[in-house]
Amino acid sequence: MTGTTLSTRPTVVIGGGPAGLTAAYLLAKRGLPVLVLEQDPTYLGGISRTESYRGFRFDIGGHRFFSKSEEVERLWDELLPDDMLERPRRSRIFYNGKFFSYPLRPFEALRKLGPIESARCGLSYLHARIRPIRNPRSFEEWVTNQFGARLFGIFFRTYTEKVWGMSCREISADWAAQRIKGLSFTKAILHGLLPRKRGRQGVVKTLIDTFRYPRLGPGMMWEAAGKRIRDLGGTILMGRRVTGLRLDPGTGVWTVTCAGPGGTVESYEGMNVISSAPMRDVVLGLEPAAGPEVRQAATALRYRDFLTVALMVRDRGVFDDNWIYIHDASVSVGRIQNYKSWSPEMVPDPALACYGMEYFCNEGDGLWARSDAELVALARRELAALGLASEADVVDGCVVRQQKAYPVYDAGYAANVGIVRAALKAAYPGLHLVGRNGMHKYNNQDHAMMTAMLTIENIIAGKSRFDVWRVNEDAEYHESGMVGSRHSVSGERAVPSSVEGLTTPLPPAA
Q1: How are beta strands 323-327 and 335-338 bridged, if at all?
Q2: Average pLDDT over residues 400-409
């Protein structure tokens, strides 16, 4: 791709979440035309947006700002230099009517589990170390190898099956490797026993003690990014749902069609399309159409949906956790956020708190189909059942539904993604997939941003200098740099090495 072509035709970015906005901002900073199409009519940020209701602000899930990538950290500082808080992390697990600190505090855990259960856990862990499962394929096998079957059953099974709606035996071990590899029973024990050290290097992300957070929620970051993009001459169109992508094989020009306000149909052209939209939807909307095998692979990709019931509650000081994992099968709620503990400015009245009751479901199932009033009533009852508030203390509530919140790592996902990747590379030049849903990878927002950063470098170069798919490929990159990667001078996480052996560093975000 020549510089002249890039400067005369816009890059079309599908999706205004962390990946899409990072890509658009970096293009706009270089003076290149860019157009962002965002489906939501109101909020930027995708699943990292911050919604508001009667002065209360809340996440769609909690979004910590922590990365071992210097490029990502610099970009956050550039976009929001004066509004980032340093927040203490506190989270607990609710199991068998008791709260357990997370990360694990070994003496507290032993006391609350009791001597008999603690002995069983210890013996189960030793058994797993002596006779591990060879080549673990499922989430259950992978975690059992790390913690033992007994601790898997206590601290992983119930919550994980709530999140994914299927047995841990059906979930790929890849998901565990991405999310919790580097954390083991031994590391959790040592973390609870040894003195805490300042700094973030070498710390497993699951165990970090502090994180940064925008004072008005993560959406504040992405609204700031949107303003910067517009100020630099980029265009962001809200309320645009992309319905099709057509490639002209002769010219290489892409035409992106979307449904606009009032049912209008709009079309936009570009030489490059950067998409963070769900991979399945993108493939099924391609023209010329992908082959039957590719469409079948895309159709087989699955997603998990998500409900947040935000409850406004009189603050009795019952708990100050950022979030609590609910490992209790007697209630449907999977996790509870306390937005006031993320930032006091998320709540307009200091006498009140706002709790996010999070329910994992599938679009159209019984939970998803309930009315908002029914969901608020359910959340109120379950909050009281857990002993975190009385029903009388709940003064208001609202519901936010999030489609395709999580790409599902089932047994066939890797093969299906591989088929799609190969087909797009071979037949659809100029189409770049980024972000969590775009790549069907359960990335954190810093990983999503890095996929966008590397994609921009590839577009500018006119060739694939960086293998974007290796971002968060395994937990070695996720936490501390992966085998074969270039490590930065600071020792923090590196970006993937260039596929052509490039040794020069990725240009800084600022």
Answers
A1: antiparallel
A2: 92
CA–CA gap between residue 159 and residue 349 (Å, rounded): 32
Distance CA 339, CA 57 (A): 8
Let me know: does 403 contact 363? Beta carbons within 8 Å.
yes
- What does the radius of gyration of the chain's CA atoms come to, in whole angstroms? 23
According to DSSP, the residues that pair with 7 across neighbouring strands are none
Euclidean distance between CA atoms 237 and 244, whole angstroms: 16
Q: Are 173 and 145 in contact (CB under 8 A)?
A: no
> Could you tell me the CA-to-CA distances from 98 to 110, 192, 502 in Å, in that order?
12, 19, 52
Hey, how many other C-beta atoms are within 10 angstroms of the C-beta on 149?
20
Q: What pLDDT score does 377 carry?
A: 98
CA distance 11 to 272: 5
Q: Say what the alpha-carbon torsion angle 148, 149, 155, 160 is, to the nearest 10 degrees.
A: 120
Of all helices (H) and strands (E), which one includes residue 95? strand 91-95
Kindly state the average pLDDT of the residues 233-249.
Answer: 97
Q: HSE-up of 320 (CA within 13 Å, CB side)?
A: 6
pTM comes to 0.85
Share of the chain above pLDDT 90, in %: 64
CA distance 486 to 498: 9
Q: 10 Å Cβ neighbour count for 231? A: 9
